[in-house]
Amino acid sequence: MPVRPANTRAQSSKAGQAIRRYLLPTTTDEYQDLKKKYDEDFKATLEELDNDVATLQVLYDGARAKRNQALKRIKAHLSSSTSSSDSRSEIEKSPVLCDEKLLDEYLSEVATTQKIRNHLTDVSEDAKQFRFYVETQALAVYAHYRGLREWAQRMFPAVDYLATALLALSTVGAGLVYSTIFSGTRGDIGLMSFTFPLFTIGFLIPAVVQLILRWASSLSKEVPFASQAFWKAVIVVFMFFASISVMAAITILNATIFLLKPGLPRDAGDTSEVPTDTVSELPGIIAFAFSGTIFLLLLICIGLSMVVRGPKEIMRLLTRSHGETQKLDKYMHV
Fold first, then answer.
1. Contacts of 293 (CB under 8 A, 6+ apart)
2. pLDDT in tens, 202-222
3. For 263, how many CA atoms within 13 A lie in the half-sphere containing its CB?
4. What residues form DSSP beta bridges with 273?
5. Rounded Cα distance, 109 and 188, in Å
6. How far is CA 196 from CA 267, 291, 295, in A?
């Protein structure tokens, strides 16, 4: 059986790592080494925090026991201060004053227990938060986000306004085209029919993007997710495609107005024509020229940007992350 050369295997492995770096970054050797490094660097700190929580738990249990003992002594004192024949209702009507020393002791134990409990809660939350930072630090350094939920929470506002605008335009445009196709008697219905699938694209893509990002941003817990660069580029490309589709549909609609023939029959049974001098072609010319100019300018700007920056720079801008990274060595513990 032929053996592959070492350099061929190395190139194949390097290519596989490059592909996984974009699609499945958490499976790459670079990410695994980085995660292992952070786990080892902060292992002692996590163990120390766990020991602090365990020690405080013991102190809290002891404080609760002392508080309960003080309460039992107060109950015994109250019981001994009343006759055995007195009922509980009679004791409540004529309460017996507790010994001040016992009361002060009990209140002191209550305050101590409450302080230890509050500190135990703070230290437990701090240990939990720091453990989360350590477990996700490799993701934060590698992808500038700590998981799917954080990325979606930052990504959703960035596309929400554009998605909402496209949804509104597509809904109105699709409804207008649908009603015109089945009820219109004049105009280029065949040309107008091309706008319906374009408006449909402009509606479905933003709706799906909004739905997925809203779901991901509301997850109850963080999910390891490091391929934000790839999926950000996918979302940007799809939203751009949806925007182009809506603009193309609007341009085609204006073209139908531009190509509208005013001298057409009023209906199928009427052979008379609409007077051509009562219908102006100026609105159609203005609408088509305005929308067509904006559409062409957008395409020209995109083309010039790609020529000036180059494909690599465009991809870098599309996949650039803006997340913040918590520096664990400067983390302020409770």
1. none
2. 889 999 999 999 999 888 888
3. 3
4. 265
5. 88
6. 24, 17, 18
